[in-house]
Amino acid sequence: xxxxxxxxxxxxxxxxxxxxxxxxxxxxxxxxxxxxxxxxxxxxxxxxxxxxxxxxxxxxxxxxxxxxxxxxxxxxxxxxxxxxxxxxxxxxxxxxxxxxxxxxxxxxxxxxxxxxxxxxxxxxxxxxxxxxxxxxxxxxxxxxxxxxxxxxxxxxxxxxxxxxxxxxxxxxxxxxxxxxxxxxxxxxxxxxxxxxxxxxxxxxxxxxxxxxxxxxxxxxxxxxxxxxxxxxxxxxxxxxxxxxxxxxxxxxxxxxxxxxxxxxxxxxxxxxxxxxxxxxxxxxxxxxxxxxxxxxxxxxxxxxxxxxxxxxxxxxxxxxxxxxxxxxxxxxxxxxxxxxxxxxxxxxxxxxxxxxxxxxxxxxxxxxxxxxxxxxxxxxxxxxxxxxxxxxxxxxxxxxxxxxxxxxxxxxxxxxxxxxxxxxxxxxxxxxxxxxxxxxxxxxxxxxxxxxxxxxxxxxxxxxxxxxxxxxxxxxxxxxxxxxxxxxxxxxxxxxxxxxxxxxxxxxxxxxxxxxxxxxxxxxxxxxxxxxxxxxxxxxxxxx
Length: 544
Hints:
Elements: H1 3-13, E1 18-23, H2 35-38, E2 50-54, H3 55-71, E3 79-83, H4 90-99, E4 103-106, H5 113-123, E5 125-130, H6 135-141, E6 150-153, E7 163-164, H7 165-170, E8 186-191, E9 201-205, H8 206-220, E10 227-230, H9 237-248, E11 252-256, H10 261-270, E12 275-278, H11 280-292, E13 307-311, H12 317-326, E14 331-338, E15 343-348, E16 362-363, E17 368-372, E18 385-390, E19 397-398, H13 402-408, E20 409-410, E21 413-422, E22 428-433, E23 438-440, E24 443-445, H14 447-454, E25 460-470, E26 474-483, H15 491-497, E27 509-512, H16 525-533, H17 537-543
Parallel strand pairs: 1-11, 3-4, 3-5, 5-6, 6-7, 10-11, 10-12, 12-13, 13-14, 26-27
Antiparallel strand pairs: 1-2, 8-9, 9-19, 14-15, 15-16, 17-18, 18-21, 20-21, 21-22, 23-24, 25-26
């Protein structure tokens, strides 16, 4: 079975039921009108506020693009890049690529023109689909990417160097192309988040993607009646693979363009969402908005919301305890994964294990885990080692990088680069990234542990701990602290708060500043090191 088979099955079984909804809250002025009602007003030409498509329309759109690619000579295993903001076109384009037997290559919407060029060349992409937000960036490089034969533009006012996606696909038939695919065929190249330098190209087969769908549905028991609210960028495995659980059972998904906490709560209420996957900052913002009175929960219908789960970065236990006080009837799950393991789910807490909040959990459905020392040997329970995972979702390879692949995959085990420990009950706790460990005076400091402690302070909105060079100790721990709106905090107060930690773990330097995070919620520690150590990203890469 491939993802294409699942889409065809949904289109046959639920042809007239809603598959996808797209909501653009920024286009609605302040109004008590519901989003669905407001969408009928047609706010501005070219700026639809709320759109939806059925499963039959979803497959038809995918077929049209597939047939366009085939008409342009696209062959099996060619690479087609996607550079779009979340939209109702995104997923049909992705599936249209897969239907041709080509390999989909989603790109991070934050990439600069040079990074886009690098990824197109690295992946050997021969086609590119992009949206209006990227016209300037693509224009800069369109004459420098001769291997890209076709450039398709999704939107109005198509630039001269591209072909109009809407115009081209309108001439194509809606019949599914007769391309035979199996689970052993290549499906997608995902790029690593790039928080440690140039991103790596991660190649996956259809087997990996289908397994991701099975893992998600097994963990969270999605039914056809569930409605999934999707907020993170679709180029990332986290958002899409969580949606795959709903996709597997033909459930509706709502694509919300924006992370304003009021928008999230309103979307859950009006679209009757039952499952929401959040990043740590968004969950914090929702709770802060409730505490400050910006959100009054009694004004919304939230009784159907059954599951809130978080992944993509370490989750502060204090945040979840706070969440469950506000939403005591919610199921909660933590999901751990990485793009090399086709996103979330190789380790998960499980909705039945909220008593273990703080752990990332145990091996997910179809996965195995191990914690190894620097020689690849298992460490005793309670000791820190590198987390390794094994299962059907492990990447095929880093595309065109044999050495990096060999460093990452050994005897079928994927070495994640995350330091972890397992307790006496078999639950795994994430300690930190291997490359983020701070060695001070011969002692290993794990920044996540210090960050979790500091987040217990009510005045702290976000925090990142990095190592700064020190002539005597080698490195010292520095805490970059982002203070909550309406609160004040001094260095002396932070130091006093840290007295509850062992002396060697206490930050030696306090910096009050915003904490930068990438679109998937991960703290951009290389950027912080560059800012506060005076060390370039390139130098960091060489050191690591």
